[in-house]
Amino acid sequence: MLCKRTYKNQITIPKKVMEKFDGVEYFEASVVDGVIVLMPVEVKPLNGKSLERIRAKISGLGISADDITRAVAWSRSRKARNLG
Hints:
Layout lengths: L14 H4 L7 E7 L2 E7 L6 H13 L4 H11 L2 H6 L1
Antiparallel strand pairs: 1-2
């Protein structure tokens, strides 16, 4: 089946193909020997203990909520988009 890449680098997967992946929302994309491979991924929410460990690691690195806010603002800025 033919797929087309849009100007925003999006590809629409034909309905007949996606019917085989009912309920799958996310796919891991990779390239193997010049072929695009999509693997279904099940996303599981983190439990409270995992979030606590992540927050402790961020805190231990000295990263503040303000640092994260500035990083997000920078990544959304025109300057950051022009670097990529």
